[in-house]
Amino acid sequence: MSESAVPRSLPWPDRAPVLGVDQFRDVIARLSSLAMRHPERVVLLGAGVDAEGDGELAGDPPPALEQIVEELGGVEVDGTARLDLLVDERVDVGPYTLLGDATTYYPLYEGEDVAIVLTLDEDGAPGTVLGIGDDLAMTLVALDLRSFLERWADALEATVESLTTDTGNEGSGPDPEAAEALMGSHLLREALGDVPERTTVRVTAPSELEDAEDLDLPVGTVAVADLRGAALGTVVELMDAPLPGGGADILDLHVAFTADGLVIALVGDAA
After folding, report:
1. Would you say residue 148 lies in a domain?
2. Would residue 69 be called left, alpha or beta, if left means φ above 0 and alpha means ψ between -120 and 50 degrees?
3. Which of 88, 104, 105, 125 is the most buried if burial means most Cβ atoms within 10 Å?
4. CB 55: neighbour CB atoms within 10 A?
């Protein structure tokens, strides 16, 4: 794809290597197979370019994702639970309230006051996938984009199987409410920290990290949460973070990511 075919409304860092699409072909094939077998339920969202490589790339994806979005734009089931790899509108409110610059993350899924995002480092390299709940807590969903797409494909497959089995009729028509509930039970509720008892990691002062000096934390970092070695589903409750001075307002801070998105820093105005 020529450079002129790539719109750039954001100043994306482009020093990171582009993710090779070959490592994603198996999961793309799984999603494509589901769409072919259940066309009335599963819809693949248009890829960025056609099979001949023509056309302009929709949305404004990070450069590292360009090969992937040339083949897959996203997927939805029964018109809901939309995984979108070609986001064309960005906001900084709702679940994105505590996030930093738009080039430090990329939305993958949006619900009502919730989201799932791909973290990006300062070079533009993709890291972990994090869910953001309606309480602004962040949940470790996957260590990388490929494993997240695998989890999504697993949940989608289970959802379609349940929808088909429950109706007993493949042509019964869409049921968005049931599809959303099933995707929730198979993935989304856990991904967004909406579980009865959730495992959390403490938000601490940077000085409590033994290797803080090696992490290149942003200037102005006042607190950190370390997800390295944490299990999937572990939650960081940012709104309950202990802040220096006691009178600081969490909403005056923003989040930054390092260590492949596994260390979450709360950063003040000095950054």
Report:
1. yes
2. alpha
3. 105
4. 14
In a domain, 218, yes or no: no
pLDDT at 243: 81
CA 13 to chain centre: 18
Tokens encoding 141? 């969903």
* Residue type (1 letter), 184: G
Evaluate whether residue 88 is within a structural domain: yes
Domain that holds residue 175: 3-107+143-191
> Strand 235-236 relative to strand 221-226: parallel, antiparallel, unpaired?
unpaired
- Do residues 264 and 254 touch, judged by C-beta distance below 8 A? no
117 sits in the region (left: phi over 0; alpha: psi -120 to 50; else beta) called: beta
pLDDT in tens, 65-93: 999 999 999 999 999 999 999 988 889 99
The answer on pLDDT for 151 being more than 60 is: yes
Cβ count within 10 A of residue 13: 17
DSSP state of 108: E
Residue 267: name the closest of 254, 250, 258 by CA: 254
CB 138 within 8 A of CB 129: no
Find the radius of gyration of the CA atoms of the chain: 19
Q: Does residue 8 fall inside a structural domain?
A: yes
Q: Cα 143 vs. chain centroid, distance in angstroms?
A: 11
- The model's confidence at residue 58, banded by pLDDT at 50, 70 and 90, is low
Alpha-carbon distance of 117 to 52, in angstroms, equals: 30
Angle at 17 between CA 15 and CA 19, to 5 degrees: 140
